[in-house]
């Protein structure tokens, strides 16, 4: 993507003892798997290289912990890697055809952005013919910019490609909105959420990839000036648990994005890039179709899954062209190869990533230790606080999907038709079983609406103010200690529970809370 750095021919001093030097040829990548709890530092010594689209700076060490990544170079480079003997694997590969496909896809999206800008500058112009050549015949002219949905099974490289496409767009001065619908491994916020953020250039830095998070979590803008994401609390990493809530949240997020883009020509032309979870069968497939509607998707990128590609192609023909319904344009459907470097992550590695992501929300990025590569001596950007709240001052809600048959309802009680229902947990039931659970703090404006309407939707379909973790429940004192990103009182006393737990030893398995 970029010209080779000017330092490509400079004389390099020999590497230190614990450093291994790698020379990469053009269009190759260094694939690195750093096991859980181990750190490694990668330094670009000459040439140019990028980490999922974010360019490395010469001589600036990139500190990575528990990560599986690839450093790609278009023009060749020299990289120094520390701690190599502790890595699971490290190797250079020139099988990078997928990267070339990705940059071609980026070029196609750019053409759509240019076209959207042209259309907005001259709204009376006759619509141009399709600019994107695709493997599907229903190519269409985008009214706004590209609204891209990345789909495919687990561990096929969706999140990585979302990062690459976002970084490439931002490098060209675009401001796309990045959306992550994967509640189990969300790259924008803590697990259990779906989120969206307008991306600017200060967020595209390799330093932000220290964990699974592109921007270092919802509170940890490295630049200090970056925007906060809009985060909805789904409350579970299991997307099959609450289909009604999930679908309603997708619709709400799509609506919020439409509202944001409607008054901003540049942002509208930049479009959105939506990452999805690896669920592609049954309810997962339904979610993909729902997301296409909710985000008014006009480009679907299918990563390495012929069957899904074929299913969507058939579906689009049926939904958009047949049946005598209104003729709408089908999204452009593009099949992309899976990168040869993409690795499967086992349950324990995923758990470690989730834990890192929660830790990062509260503590920020870890700064590299001075003397060794061990994470234990790291310092962190932020200092979260323990705050004490009285049970009397909070209302802890949980989702309840109970829907009674009419005959079981009390006389004159109405059956609610809204499947999204809340129940408020009585103080007497807030016991030590909530210890270590992650709670979402409702935004005061959402609380105001909720108190007026009594509708669970006003809390569940609104962006949350932030998160706390229950450190301790003191039943005798009727109080709780909460780990909070900052001191002082909570933005509101309304908290949403879920089944996400966190303990600062990277080992706690999230478990379903069993409520009585
Ligand atoms: N070219 C590559 N070389 C090495 N590792 C890679 C490469 N591309 C991606 N990875 C790593 O492979 C893992 C899986 O990739 P990614 O997270 O993009 O997949 P995904 O489809 O989003 O997964 P899921 O949907 O299950 O969350 C990640 O750890 C990612 O950093």
TrEMBL record:
Q: Among its keywords, does the record have Iron?
A: no
Q: Carries keyword Glycoprotein?
A: no
Record's compositionally biased regions (Polar residues): 1-10
Q: Which HAMAP family match?
A: Clp1 (MF_03035)
Residue sites binding ATP per the record: 29, 68, 155-160
For this protein, the parts annotated as crossing the membrane are none
GO MF annotation, one: ATP binding
- The chain positions of domain Clp1 P-loop read 152-364
Q: Which residues form a coiled coil?
A: none
**GO CC: one term?**
nucleus
Which cell locations does it reside in?
Answer: Nucleus
Q: What are the boundaries of the region Disordered?
A: 1-22
Q: Which GO terms describe its biological process?
A: mRNA 3'-end processing
Job of this protein: Required for endonucleolytic cleavage during polyadenylation-dependent pre-mRNA 3'-end formation.
Its family remark reads:
Belongs to the Clp1 family. Clp1 subfamily.
Domain Clp1 N-terminal, chain residue ranges per copy: 23-116
Keyword annotations for this protein, in alphabetical order, are: ATP-binding, mRNA processing, Nucleotide-binding, Nucleus
Domain Clp1 C-terminal per the UniProt entry, residue ranges:
383-504
**Signal peptide span per the entry?**
none
In its UniProt entry, what is this protein called? Protein CLP1 homolog
Matches recorded under InterPro entries: Clp1 (IPR028606), Clp1/Grc3 (IPR045116), Clp1_C (IPR010655), Clp1_C_sf (IPR038238), Clp1_N (IPR032324), Clp1_N_sf (IPR038239), CLP1_P (IPR032319), P-loop_NTPase (IPR027417)
């Amino acid at each position: 993507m970029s010209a080779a750095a000017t330092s490509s021919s400079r004389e390099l001093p020999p590497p230190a003892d614990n450093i291994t030097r790698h020379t990469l040829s053009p269009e190759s990548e260094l694939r690195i798997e750093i096991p859980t709890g181990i750190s490694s530092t990668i330094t670009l010594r000459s040439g140019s290289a990028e980490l999922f689209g974010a360019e490395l700076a010469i001589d600036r060490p990139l500190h990575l912990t528990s990560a599986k990544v690839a450093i790609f170079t278009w023009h060749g480079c020299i990289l120094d890697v520390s701690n190599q003997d502790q890595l699971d694997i490290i190797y250079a590969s020139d099988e990078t055809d997928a990267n070339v496909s990705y940059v071609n896809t980026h070029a196609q999206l750019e053409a759509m952005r240019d076209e959207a800008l042209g259309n907005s500058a001259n709204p009376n112009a006759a619509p141009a013919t399709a600019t994107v050549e695709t493997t599907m015949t229903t190519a269409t002219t985008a009214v706004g910019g590209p609204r891209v949905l990345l789909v495919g099974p687990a561990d096929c490289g969706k999140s990585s490609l979302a990062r690459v496409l976002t970084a490439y767009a931002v490098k060209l001065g675009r401001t796309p909105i990045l959306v992550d619908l994967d509640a189990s491994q969300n790259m924008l916020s803590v697990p259990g959420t779906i989120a969206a953020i307008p991306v600017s250039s200060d967020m595209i830095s390799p330093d932000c990839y220290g964990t699974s998070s592109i921007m270092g979590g919802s509170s940890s803008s490295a630049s200090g000036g970056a925007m906060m994401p809009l985060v909805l609390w789904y409350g579970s990493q299991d997307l099959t648990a609450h289909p009604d809530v999930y679908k309603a949240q997708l619709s709400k997020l799509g609506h919020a994005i439409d509202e944001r883009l409607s008054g901003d020509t540049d942002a509208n032309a930049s479009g959105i890039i939506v990452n999805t979870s690896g669920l592609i069968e049954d309810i997962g497939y339904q979610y993909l179709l729902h997301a296409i509607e909710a985000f008014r998707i006009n480009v679907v990128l299918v990563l390495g899954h012929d069957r899904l590609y074929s299913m969507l192609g058939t579906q689009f023909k049926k939904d958009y062209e047949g049946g005598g319904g209104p003729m709408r344009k089908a999204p452009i459907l593009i099949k992309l190869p899976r990168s040869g470097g993409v690795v499967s992550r086992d349950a324990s590695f995923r758990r470690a990533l989730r834990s890192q992501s929660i830790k990062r929300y509260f503590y920020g990025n870890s700064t590299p230790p001075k003397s060794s590569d061990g994470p234990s001596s790291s310092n962190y950007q932020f200092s979260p606080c323990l705050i004490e709240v009285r049970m009397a001052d909070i209302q802890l809600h949980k989702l309840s999907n109970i829907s009674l048959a009419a005959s079981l309802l009390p006389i004159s009680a109405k059956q609610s038709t809204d499947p999204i229902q809340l129940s408020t947990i009585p103080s007497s039931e807030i016991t030590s079983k909530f210890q270590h659970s992650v709670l979402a703090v409702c935004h005061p404006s959402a609380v105001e609406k909720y108190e007026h309407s009594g509708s669970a939707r006003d809390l569940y379909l609104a962006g949350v103010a932030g998160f706390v973790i229950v450190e301790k429940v003191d039943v005798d004192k009727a109080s709780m200690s909460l780990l909070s990103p900052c001191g002082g009182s909570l933005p509101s006393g309304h908290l949403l529970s879920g089944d996400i737990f966190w303990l600062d030893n990277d080992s706690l398995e999230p478990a379903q809370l069993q409520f009585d």
